[in-house]
């Protein structure tokens, strides 16, 4: 566990130093969400109906954009190979890096999304469900995204390719999250959706780090 | 077990034993396809609701079944390639991805053609069509990753990991898409669920499904064999074969 | 002979053996059936032309990449089987400096000490002193020269408790003074029964310590 905290500390320290770079996906999120009323129509009914989908699709894309930060610079400057040579379970190393990524991207998104949803006339009584789905699902996005990034690390154009690999895997997260929000908008019970998302989170958290370790091995061969 | 896998998976031995298999599978495929198509297109009765257009199911349904089956085969050979580092299994992954994507595309196209008379539009966001579409995206991912690496062995291993992660995700994706479509689907859209199918339709359908399986295997053997030759072109056994042939 | 006694003998007298190593890059074979053995107190200097596979060999020895064929064993055990134990004894410094340029020299050294704890009780200032950067502790590493970056990454040599050092071109970009320091450090390591495998384009002076050249 010492290893986990050390890596987490290191990655968060680096994230703070790189905060301008990290802010880019968040700015992207804000801009893209505000493009929808311009592209579709400023109609209040239509926008409030589209709001959960728009927020979630944009959040997926913003997370994908930030994914490169998890391993890329460590791979390029040789730090990642040093981290992989640390004695200790590699799972902890991967887990710490994914946690750090979530803290530096997922968490700010959870703060930004409710604010942006107001621009789309999202009904405030369902705000709780928006925040809860983001809270459960953004870690899943970080987890699934880490596999794509780890697989394409040794490729020059890895960023765009990894988005292609990962987006289909994001579909269940998108479906369950937006369905939960829509249920909440219509004052229907939502706990079932939370349970499903929670189960998906647990399964991903248990299995994905192993896939990432295997993927990094391939990238280093 | 280990010895068995290594023996049958060694490129040279694989090339030898697969030759006979490929020939017989091709013959069986042709026979089954001929019988199945004849029965399906000419002998099976016209559907009282859908008329003649339903006959596309003899292509559509087996193709849709194959799209999933090939993904499974790809993931299994991925496990074999990762665990035992069998060269032939690595090649099979790439070939499966291409063949599987073709089956998936075939299922989608025939589904759309069928949809036009059925629904009045080519595309409906129905659970099965949507799942097939997502499956096609997954295949694209595997193909893109596989071909992105200069070293084909690294590409195969990366694709194997992706395929294995995919196989765990597919049930979740399928389930979520089905659920999503039951909530969104307006009641006017007809569902295909046919609890009882007449034997004269069912038998050609099963024959076609079997024909598609043997076709897949025959194609897989043929593609894998030529890829084995290309990869091993610098080894002595391939050179010997080349000399014999010329 | 008791098992405990045997254990202590092994601990003091480590051995790294490579058998029938084969490495491919693409479809080209870099080397085939390579064999060597290295014991405590010895250094192996790998020489070979560009592209001969020096770096590939080093990476295989660390376990970062796997050979197409052959085994590497550490004290008669396959390194893939005892990865954790082997990594405890391993110090690898590759081509890339593994220095975070967003951080200052002090922060980088702190991270080094955090990840690779050592017995020596030296402070960060002492460590900076031994790499000659004590006056630049608060400088961001993005403003260091190539040679200075190299010094930061070599700082691990001065606090190392690991038995086996694997160094890829350790003298690259260093000035004459610091090359002397690194050589001295290597000699001390070998004197205290350590082992080293390194590649270098220019000669390296290991004093009276046992070393042999391995041509690739």
Can you give keywords for this protein?
heterotrimer, A: 221 residues, mainly alpha, 10 helices, 81% helix, 0% strand, globular, C: 216 residues, alpha/beta, Rossmann fold, 2 domains, five-stranded parallel sheet, 9 strands
Description:
The complex is a heterotrimer of chains A (221), B (246) and C (216). With 221 residues, chain A is mostly helical. Chain A has one domain. Helix content of chain A is 81%, strand content 0%. Chain A is built from 10 helices and no strands. Chain A has helices at 2-17, 19-39, 44-67, 72-76, 79-84, 90-119, 127-151, 158-166, 171-185, 191-219. The two termini of chain A are 28 Å apart. Chain B has 246 residues and is mostly helical. Chain B has a domain at 57-187 and 199-232. Helix content of chain B is 81%, strand content 0%. Chain B has helices at 2-9, 11-43, 57-84, 87-119, 127-148, 152-184, 199-231, 236-245. The longest helix of chain B has 33 residues, at 11-43. The two termini of chain B are 37 Å apart. Chain C folds into 2 domains: 16-89 and 163-216, Rossmann fold, CATH 3.40.50; 98-161, no CATH class. In chain C, the strands form 2 sheets. A 5-stranded parallel sheet of chain C has the order 6-7-8-3-9, sandwiched between helices. In chain C, α4 (105-115) crosses α5. The longest helix of chain C is centred in the C-terminal third of the chain and has 16 residues, at 176-191. The termini of chain C are far apart. In chain C, 34% of the residues are buried. Classes of the chains: A mainly alpha (221), B mainly alpha (246), C alpha/beta (216). The A-B interface holds A 147, 151-152, 154-155, 157, 161, 164-165, 167-169, 171-172, 175-176, 179, 200, 203, 207-208, 211, 214-215, 218-219, 221 and B 82, 134, 137-138, 140-141, 144-145, 148-149, 154, 157-158, 161-162, 164-166, 168-169, 172-173, 175-177, 179-180, 183.
